[in-house]
Amino acid sequence: MASRAxxxxxxxxxxxxxxxxxxHQQGRPFQADALCSEVLRxxxxxxxxxxxxxxLALEAGDTGQGIQWLERSLKINNRQFAGHSNLGxxxxxxxxxxxxxxxxxxxxRLKPDYMVALYNRANAxxxxxxxxxxxxxxxxxLHAQPGDVQALNNKALVLIELGRLPExxxxxxxxxxxxxxxxxxxxxxxxxxxxxxxYEDALQTYNRTLAIRPDHxxxxxxxxxVLRTLHRYAEALSDYxxxxxxxPDSVLALNNxxxxxxxxGxxxxxxxxxxxxxxxAPGSPDSLYNRGAALRELHRYSESAQTFxxxxxxxxxxxxxxxxxxxxxxxxxxxxxxxxxTSRLHAALQADHRVINPLSLLLLDESPRVxxxxxxxxxxxxxxxxxxxxxxxxxxxxxxVAYISADFREHPVSYLLAGTLEQHDRAHFEILGISLRxxxxxxxxxxxxxxxxxxxxxxxxxxxxxxxxxxEMEVDIxxxxxxxxxxxxxxIFAQRAAPVQVSYLGYAGTLGAPYIDYVLADSVVIPxxxxxxxxxxxxxxxxxxxxxxxxxxxxxxxxxEQAGLxxxxxxxxxxxxxxxxxxPVFDIWMRLLQEVPQSVLxxxxxxxxxxxxLLREAESRGVDPRRVVFAPHVxxxxxxLGRHQLADLYLxxxxxxxxxxxxxxLWAGVPVITCAGGSFASRVAAxxxxxxxxxxLIGASLEEYGRLALELALNTRxxxxxxxxxxxxxxxxxxxxxxxxxxxxxxxxxxxxxxSRQATPPEAFDVAVD
Length: 770
Description:
This protein has 34 helices and 14 strands. It is α/β, with parallel strands linked by helices. The strands form two sheets. The chain has an eight-stranded parallel sheet, with helices on one face. It has a six-stranded parallel sheet with strand order 10-9-8-11-12-13, sandwiched between helices. Helix 11 runs antiparallel to helix 12. The termini are far apart.
């Protein structure tokens, strides 16, 4: 320019700016910027030059300078929609979505049909988690530009956040039709299918994404998650190994690899992975949660509780963390914050049922309504119903019943059920045992296996495969023996494994699952009128719903000295799991020790931490800790039952009763004192006592329970009379009539099967007494 040092006229500045724009379009940013600088020296309020310089800075990666110059340009001319739009996009890129939204809204006020601003507005809303508004903006963009690939992809992401997964999947399918090699769309499709728990379809999709980009860490991690869910652990570990080779510091890969190891029972190795993850990201909520879970599996309860407490400091609303902390306190009998913790849980439950898992809730709350709501929320999240096309074939042979459990071993469920499995009428029933874990070569394990017409281990098979297997075997009735206990596989039932699906024995409450047709109960654990609190149809067996094995051997009683008991004094026994003991119940037990001279409380063996806590609690209540005696582990159930005979009374717990251990005590001839509460889990012992003919041992409140226990503890004659009655009732009352019980159970199965054959919906009914 001839007159650069002077003050060029408007025409000359216009020409210079046009040349700068042309240089920008030609990909010559430095020359374009130089010309803009000359224009601005001549006219510091030239909007176009400031705006173009801002764009050049943004393109060069100098976002801060670009934002500064855009703001300066808009001070000169606030009516430029493109300037507001570009500023909004720049602010969004530096993590300022709220400020970005304000700029983008201004751009759209100036030009409502400006699609660039509308698209970025949707992105800002998505960053702000205002997903419904973001969806509306993406849909407006797609209405104007139906083929906009990025808008389609982001719309799918928003639909995922809104839980509208089928719509998200449809969106991604459209995107892939338009762009079959779109890697992001394939990833998104896999993520949606994973969220929908369509694991086989998700696996195929991740295979496709990794065929396009074998080193994509996100797809490796997610495929590993799918493989873990499908119980293909070795393949999952391989994917996580590759992910960690690509991204050695990936906290997500470390956590997920740890989760595979935890599922395999390699708890120490899993813990090491979570520790590594926490070194890389000390405040990671997921790493803390996983560390707490591994420590619990290792029975390091106080460390686990400390981990969950630390997690709650960081994320007070982390799903299930507060409930885990509560259960861990109960596991270790650490009641230091029991009143505060239980109050906090009750309050939190009003707002969010994901604060505690349903099994832990049985230790806290007796309300069947709350238990139903909690179970429904948990199952909907963890094991939702799957839409599976099923066509069940009718067969004219025996009714085929499959019992499904991970507890066909030395476990209370098998101790209770073994006799019934043997007593099933083989002329009319075929019995399958479907074992969710490898069989143990123990006496009970062998007995259960031999009591089944077929016994199949499915440890390494996916839920989908197990359900398909049961359908292929034409199972008529699939019986879940686990419910929501550890090791359960409700996903099998979510796939509709059989025409009739039943919850039985392993879980004392509703599963809240729409695909479980019936729950087996009795009139004590689920009184008439309470059916509304169960997702399943209630089938009441004639007496106690608990099966019992009348073949169980009882060894000779040891001497009191051999059992570690004092030579004299009343023995109050409670061989229950430590987590069922709570302060209100323990208070009563300690008052009994104070009021019954020379009496002792006899508990099952526990670890050093739990033992120390219980002894301190006794001492704090004015009881000599030496009066709390722990029974060591013995080699067989027969020996365990034999030593029961040294007890004078068995003391039950509330709100989670002793279930199989109530039957152990009664079978061994020991009277049981219980308190009937408001829930299934808190009425099981009452049901057993009714069925054995000793209803007078059921208290209606904890106060009455305490009075009953004290009266009997002080009255040797009454205790002796009870023992004589119990000895007679064992063989005359229904609780231990294995053959009679099995006939009642089979009557229930026959009616369920009949209704299914007639295509009649499940309905509640009571089995008639023979």
